[in-house]
């Protein structure tokens, strides 16, 4: 493990800053190779930089670390000192390293909402080394978007997504937002699908997805995403099922085209039934394909105590999409209790996750009641210890 850590330290420094033994002082090179952890690397570089104020590479390393620690003022100081070294020409700094400096300054400016300044630093970086563009396309896309330059932002994100698999959740969201601002809605669904496979849900994501599908005239899928946002929110704030039901009725009343109404009706009936907690006989093949419809269909089955072992397996298979939904984990628990009366205690982690996602929420209270009832029914010390660990 120690050897792996040392190797990682060396690789990080080499890749980020293009260092070579010929370009560095012997002391700095020896220092890099002597590290046995990342913390050790930063401490030694810090001490080296204090003794060598005109050393450029060490400032980039320390600035990058300060950004990672969200110590932006310190990072700014290191980078400005590095820029002074470049401008004074007191040290022979490669174009690649100078470009790295300006992209880091662009990143800091963007974080500080100084978007025009960020764009200026990007220009300086590319003027120094145009080849650095491909490694910084995500940042460029964000800066263009913040400046209201949707098409330029989209162009940067398109190249970034083609050439890299390192997109973060904010990269996906910015790219989708830029596309929506440019009315290029048909390009968003594939990104929505990829986002839900990689990143957790957040309040408002379903509403955005719903608006995209509404623009694409896919009303059933639009309704599903809108309801998923409501279902997610129910785990974190007070929600009004009656109001949600009325909203669905209002949507239904807007359809004058009988053919369109028949297309949308299976989805509407399912969602209205979930709001009213009433029995709905639903054909899952009439619902739009996808994890959202599958979840809500299974939720309906569970409420009617009609879930089978196969259905339960299906419910488990979509956990990755609902890892931040308290409602999902309580549904998992309720379904397990119905199907496995002799072994449902094995699914206690679902209650624990329900509480952990929002300890003060509605579903957390329901989960605690479930645990309390289990405590009342057992005299096994092992189970009592487990249940108490969840409650207290």
Could you give a quick summary of the protein structure above?
About 70% of the residues lie in helices and about 0% in strands. The chain has helices at about 1-15, 25-35, 40-50, 55-70, 70-90, 95-110, 115-130, 135-145, 150-165, 170-180, 190-200, 205-215, 220-235, 240-255, 260-275, 290-305, 310-315, 325-340, 350-355, 360-375, 380-390.
Mean pLDDT, nearest integer?
87
Strand percentage lies at under 5%
Shape: globular
The biggest beta sheet, please? none
Low-pLDDT segments:
1-24
| Helical segment count | 21
Considering DSSP H and I runs of 4 or more, what fraction of the residues is helical?
A: over 70%
Q: Helix-strand pattern, N to C?
A: HHHHHHHHHHHHHHHHHHHHH
> How much is the radius of gyration in Å?
27 Å
Q: How far is the N terminus from the C terminus?
A: 36 Å
Count of DSSP strands: 0
Derived from helix and strand composition plus strand pairing, the structural class reads mainly alpha
């Amino acid at each position: 493990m120690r050897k792996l850590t040392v190797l990682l330290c060396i690789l990080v420094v080499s890749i980020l800053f293009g260092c070579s033994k010929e370009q560095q002082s012997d002391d700095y090179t020896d220092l890099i190779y002597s590290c046995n952890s990342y913390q050790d690397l930063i401490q030694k570089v810090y001490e080296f930089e204090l003794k060598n104020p005109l050393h450029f590479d060490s400032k980039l390393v320390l600035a990058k670390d300060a950004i990672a620690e969200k110590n932006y003022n310190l990072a700014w100081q290191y980078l400005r000192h590095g820029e002074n070294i470049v401008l004074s020409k007191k040290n022979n700094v490669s174009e690649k390293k100078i470009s790295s400096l300006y992209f880091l300054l662009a990143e800091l400016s963007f974080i500080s909402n100084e978007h025009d300044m960020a764009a200026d630093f990007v220009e300086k970086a590319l003027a120094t080394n145009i080849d650095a563009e491909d490694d910084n396309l995500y940042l460029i896309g964000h800066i263009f978007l913040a400046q209201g330059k949707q098409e330029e932002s989209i162009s940067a994100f398109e190249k970034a997504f083609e050439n890299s698999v390192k997109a973060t959740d904010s990269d996906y969201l910015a790219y989708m937002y830029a596309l929506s601002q440019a009315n290029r809605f048909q390009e968003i669904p594939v990104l929505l699908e990829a986002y839900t496979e990689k990143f957790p849900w957040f309040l408002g994501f379903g509403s955005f997805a719903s608006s995209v599908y509404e623009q694409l005239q896919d009303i059933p899928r639009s309704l599903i995403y809108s309801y998923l946002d409501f279902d997610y929110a129910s785990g974190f704030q007070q929600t009004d099922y009656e109001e949600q039901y009325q909203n669905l009725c209002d949507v239904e009343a807007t359809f004058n085209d009988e053919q369109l109404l028949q297309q949308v009706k299976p989805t509407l009936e399912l969602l209205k039934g979930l709001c009213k907690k009433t029995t709905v006989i639903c054909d899952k093949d009439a619902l739009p394909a996808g994890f959202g419809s599958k979840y809500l269909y299974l939720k309906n089955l569970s409420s009617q105590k009609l879930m089978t072992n196969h259905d339960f397996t299906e419910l488990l298979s979509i956990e990755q999409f609902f890892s931040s939904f308290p409602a999902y984990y309580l549904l998992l628990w309720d379904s397990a209790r119905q199907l496995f009366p002799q072994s449902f205690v094995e699914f206690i982690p679902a209650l624990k996750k329900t509480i952990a996602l929002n300890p003060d929420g509605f579903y957390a209270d329901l989960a605690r009641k479930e645990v309390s009832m289990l405590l009342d029914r057992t005299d096994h010390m092992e189970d009592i210890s487990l249940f108490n660990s969840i409650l207290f």
